[in-house]
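REQUEST FORM: STRUCTURE PREDICTION
Request ID: SP-0412
Submitted by: Lab K.M.
Chain count: 1
Length (residues): 471
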Amino acid sequence: MGSSDRDMRRGSVLVVDDDLIECRSLSEFLKLDGYQVDSATSGHEALDKLKKASFDIVLTDVNMPEITGFDLLNEVNKNYPSTVVILITGYGQIEGAVRAIKEGAYDYITKPLIDDGVKMIINRALEQQQLKKENIQLKKQLGMLIGGDLVGRDHQMKKLFDLMDSVADSRATVVITGESGVGKTLVARTIHSRSSRKDSPFVEVSCGSLPESLLESELFGHARGSFTGAVSDKQGKFEVAHGGTIFLDEIGDAPPSMQVKLLRVIQDKVFEPVGGNKTVQADVRLILATNKDLEEEVKAGRFREDLFYRIKVVTLHIPPLRERLGDLRFLAEHFLTKYVAENNKGLTGISDGAMRIMQQHNWPGNVRELENVIERAVILSSGPEVMPEDLPFKAVPSADAGAGPNKSPIASLKEALEAPEREIILRALEAANWSRSETASALEINRSTLFKKMKKYGLEAPEGVGADAND
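STATUS: Completed
RESULT:
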């Protein structure tokens, strides 16, 4: 008996069947084969046992009184997401079983039961569970989830995380750059949460969403009677954020009058409300973000040069998603877990076909777009996995597809997938410092496959890099 067989047989199974003889027979067979087995002869009894103990698998008959196998499937998916359900159906009930799989069952077995068939399906389910557990552990070891939805193992993201740790507990002004949707607000919140100011307010203001006449009042407050409609004194965001952090998003859109006041706040740590004569101390940490090139804005005369050099203490750049496709799978799985839990769905993964299509997409909306795509797919999907038809876009055809009568569409698709595959492998190698064993593990392929693909794409480790680059 191989070690993998012994590992799989450590799994626990709850057998559920209202036929006492069938239930005992199946339970004894599984016990003799090394599984940890408990049994229940009704849906009610099964739910009671699930409350008292955890099981890897629930193997249940479909046709039972009061609580059917379908009912049990729904309860397990809702309350015990780490447990998988395998249905037992009679001949002629296969259509219903297929429907149940779309609702989240792992698989179904038809009567009369065949011993080898039962073992094969159970072992396959346990093996899949083990892979998921190992993947979660790998993510923890690589430190891919730094907080909330800020996920990444690409080398650019690792450098970003290191910089965030370095500046988190300082007073230095931070400028976060990157395209819309890359996660600038999340980076700002993470820096605040890791600083000594974490128990004080985090206040966010979008400089591009307010007209100039309101933005100054929003930031610095105003005195009663300072303008039409100012019927009372109002605290500004800088005052509200006292002792904490103020995050100014879209700083490149700030009007010149606000830029002048902002420069004074940074230099002198004081400001006056609009229409007021009281000077207010500004004990705040300032984090700014922009999707514009501020140097170009300075050259164009739209952003003050003195303010630019005053805020350019620490710059954190977040790369667009298309430049770190190695993170795509991990981000997608992270959002899948999040929205499966929020929507009480039974999805267990993303199909290879759907993942290939996502890897071809250019992601103009970056991580925000990916999150929306996964949330939509979770809501619309009726099966155990996200499928290509659940995505709002389709595969990108090769530029040469259909160019001539002898052109093979399969060859064209293969060619179209080569560029993103090479990029994903390259980024994974760089993130693992060119360690083949770590890279193969992260990509969930064996080392010989990785070696062949490296040779195919001409990927060679830089001299002296990678502890096991030649193993």
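NOTES: The chain is about 45% helix and 15% strand.
Reviewed by: T.R.
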